[in-house]
Design brief:
By secondary structure, the protein is an alpha+beta fold. It has one domain: 2-Layer Sandwich (Alpha-Beta Plaits). It has helices at 9-13, 17-26, 41-47, 57-64, 79-87, 100-104, 119-130; strands at 2-7, 30-37, 69-75, 113-115. Strands 2-3-1-4 form a four-stranded antiparallel beta sheet. The radius of gyration is 14 Å and the shape is globular. The mean pLDDT is 96.
Length: 131
């Protein structure tokens, strides 16, 4: 199974790319595609399209376009759910120790990583970033 996984601008800026990737690889996932890129506002709006009517939509777009990201296709058993578990809760204050967000993130708005929340989202996000 494949999923989309991304290190957000705060993780890139803080130079923790290697730490995040190491955590993914230690869980026996294989990164089959990876690129560092600057997300355009147009791509960000498509990526976060399901949130377009929410009050925080512009903040999401502004943050994700504020610096480079590392976008990845990750393969492994039950990848969508397992990567979500490895990431930890969206709000770092609620994330368990040992998870990426629990150990490396400090605020909800800048929580280091993004991972697809379903197989459908994974297919859509992989197509957006790698096709």
């Amino acid at each position: 199974m494949k999923t989309f996984f991304m290190i957000k601008p705060d993780g890139v800026k803080r130079n923790i790319i290697g730490d995040v990737i190491n955590r993914v690889e230690r869980k026996d996932f294989v990164i089959t595609k990876m690129k560092m890129m600057q997300i355009t506002p147009e791509l960000a709006e498509k990526h976060y399209g399901e949130h377009s009517e929410k009050p925080f939509f512009n903040d999401l777009v502004n943050f994700i376009t504020s610096g480079p990201v590392v976008a990845m296709e990750v393969e492994g058993e039950n990848a969508v759910l397992a990567i979500r578990e490895l990431m930890g809760a969206t709000n770092p204050a609620d994330a368990d120790p040992g998870t990426i967000r629990g150990d490396l993130a400090s605020k909800l708005e800048e929580n280091v990583v993004h991972g697809s929340d379903s197989e459908e989202s994974a297919d859509r996000e992989l197509a957006l970033f790698f096709n």
